[in-house]
Write a structure and sequence with these properties.
Length: 235
């Protein structure tokens, strides 16, 4: 099974600042993932031509779609999107907003994969280190997260964690970092990747075959992040 996680920057290229959702779709199709986790997805926002990106991406990639709107932008919103080749049997949203900071969130979905139920946790964390530590702690302690403890779990997204400070706390809760060593997983900025911001962690009977950052001319143009791909099985 293959998962792709990507901060698509609303479909706006990191260097040329050109909006093109088609570039994003083409880059994703080239990897043929079964599950897609996208951050910074717009719905009805002026900068992205008022496109309903969750609907367009679900139509182009033929997936079961779960969208979490986190931030209001004018009359529109943007947030996190999960697309799955297989049915989603449950879905929950957890707010990770701390005080008056920018709204953030996590998606918790249970995917009915051919190898059994997969608990997928998809998030986009804040810019400040203390904020991120609070967000991870809040997520791990949340009853909705804890209720799925018996399922194999993948935790993925844009962690904004330049110094890889969150891995120890997650390890204390049974998560092992897939995107390690970080020197192999530099994903931001796309055109000269220095930071390993896009991460994945696994818990339970997840067997990872391969994990990699997708470095192509297309992915360097389509967003300011590079995509992360994880090939895995449920043991």
């Amino acid at each position: 099974m293959r998962l792709l996680s990507w901060n698509i920057h609303k479909g706006i290229g990191g260097r040329d600042r050109r909006y093109s959702l088609e570039r994003v779709v083409s880059a994703i199709e080239a990897e043929n993932p079964d599950i897609v986790c996208l951050q910074e997805v717009d719905r009805l926002v002026r900068r992205s031509r008022h496109d309903d990106q969750p609907r367009l991406l679900a139509g182009a990639l033929h997936g079961h779609a779960v969208f979490q709107a986190n931030v209001h932008v004018g009359e529109g919103v943007y947030g996190n999107l999960v697309l799955s080749r297989w049915p989603v049997t449950s879905r929950h949203r957890i707010s990770l907003r701390q005080g008056t900071r920018k709204p953030r969130g996590a998606q918790l979905v249970l995917v009915d994969s051919p190898e059994g139920p997969l608990h997928l946790v998809h998030t986009h964390l804040g810019l400040a280190e203390r904020e991120r530590v609070w967000q991870v702690g809040h997520l791990l302690a949340h009853p909705l997260f804890r209720s799925a403890a018996d399922f194999p779990t993948l935790l993925v997204g844009d962690f904004n964690d330049w110094r890889n400070r969150l891995s120890r706390g997650l390890a204390d809760h049974g998560f092992r970092q897939i995107t390690s060593p970080v020197s192999r997983f530099r994903s931001f900025p796309a055109w000269l990747a220095l930071g390993a911001l896009d991460k994945a962690f696994a818990r339970g009977t997840i067997v990872v075959r391969q994990a990699r950052i997708v470095r192509t001319n297309l992915t360097r143009e389509a967003s300011d992040h590079l995509p992360l791909v994880v090939d895995f099985h449920i043991g």
